Amino acid sequence: MALNFGALDAPIARTAESLLEHAMHLDAHGYDYLWVPLDRAELLFDITKQTKHLKLGVCCNVSDSDAMPMTETILSLHQKAPDRIHVGLNATGNQRRIDTTIETLRAILPPTITLSMLSQASPAGAQFAGVNRLGLISSAATTPGGFNALSPSWDVYQRNCGDSHADRGTWALAGPVHIAETKKAAYRQVEQGLSRWVEHLRETQHVDLLSKDEDPVNSLVTNGMAVIGTPTDAIKQIRRLRKASGGFGCFLQTVHGWADQQSSLRSYELFAQRVIPLFK
Question: How far apart are alpha carbons 46 and 221 in whole angstroms?
Answer without folding.
Answer: 34
